[in-house]
Specification:
The chain has a domain of 29 residues. By secondary structure, it is mostly helical.
Amino acid sequence: MQYLVPIQRGEKNAGEILMVTREEADAYFHAEDQAVTMAEYGMSQ
């Protein structure tokens, strides 16, 4: 996650294409979904 978040935020440019396992990708997307849910929940308070 430490590699993709700065790219998504526009803080740095993408470099080489990362190769990850399915398990690593699933873990990243799960963490991303949780972060988005927490942010959306916080905005509705």
